[in-house]
Amino acid sequence: MKACLLAAFVLLSAPAFSQPSVPDLPFESVPDFLKLPPGMNFGEVSGVAVNSKGHVFVFTRSNSALGPAYAPSAAQLLEFGPKGEFIREIGKGLYGLAFAHTVRVDRDDNIWAVDKGSDMVIKFNQAGRVVMVFGRRQESADQETKPWEDVNPPRPAVDGRSRTRALAASAPT
Question: Residues 80-91, buried b or exposed e (16+ Cβ, 10 A)?
Answer without folding.
Answer: beeeeeeeebbb
